[in-house]
Amino acid sequence: MLNHLQQSRNFSDIRILRALATAGLIGNIVKHNASISGAEVGCQGEVGVACAMASAAANQLFGGSPAQIEYAAEMGLEHHLGMTCDPVCGLVQIPCIERNAYAAARALDANLFSTFTDGIHRVSFDKVVQVMKQTGHDLPSLYKETSEGGLAKDYKQM
Ligand code: SF4
Dihedrals φ, ψ of 85, to 5°? Predict the structure, then answer.
């Protein structure tokens, strides 16, 4: 996503690095307070958090305020809450590849949505991280990288 933005908008390397630092900050907040492991909390912790990181990075890149950046990150994660991890055949391919691409597109939407606001919103990013952790704890193990449920369960190789 950042590569696409740099190519299409001519952002300098230093601005991309700042956006990456913002993404890293968001990822570390989740890693410290919850988890970024599909085996622990399902795909919400992997693709959901990646979306939050990308949302924050994009918003920072387009000049968002700290409140708008936090809002973009919050939306990126909130709308992946509950997403299960069920990789077909135990490989990080289906649904992972397309799912990441969709999340990148969602991150651009979260950035845009936040840009249209003053950054004030009702559910904080910290709260969504807590909810993600609890939801991941409540998910049955068959939805946490075991490939025993969901898409992985009934897939037949052609
Ligand atoms: S579904 Fe794929 S991308 Fe999502 S947590 Fe599982 S292995 Fe990772």
Answer: -110, 115
* Whether residue 57 has its Cβ less than 6 Å from ligand 1: no
Q: Average pLDDT for consecutive 10-residue bins of the chain (158 residues)?
A: 96 98 98 98 98 98 98 98 96 96 98 98 98 98 95 80
Which region, left, alpha or beta, applies to residue 156 given φ > 0 means left and ψ of -120 to 50 means alpha?
A: beta
- For the chain, the structural domain boundaries read 2-151
Helix ranges (DSSP H) in the chain:
2-9, 13-33, 38-41, 47-61, 66-78, 96-115, 125-138, 150-154
Q: State the pLDDT at residue 154.
A: 81
Distance separating alpha carbons of residues 65 and 127, to the nearest angstrom? 20
Per-residue pLDDT, 158: 63
- Which atom number of ligand 1 is nearest to the Cα of residue 46? 5
Give the residue among 7, 72, 94, 82 at the shortest CA–CA distance from 42.
82
Using a 6 Å cutoff on CB, does residue 26 contact ligand 1? no
Strand partners, 144: 85
Atom of ligand 1 nearest to the CA of 38: 5
Which two tokens mark 43? Answer: 């795909």
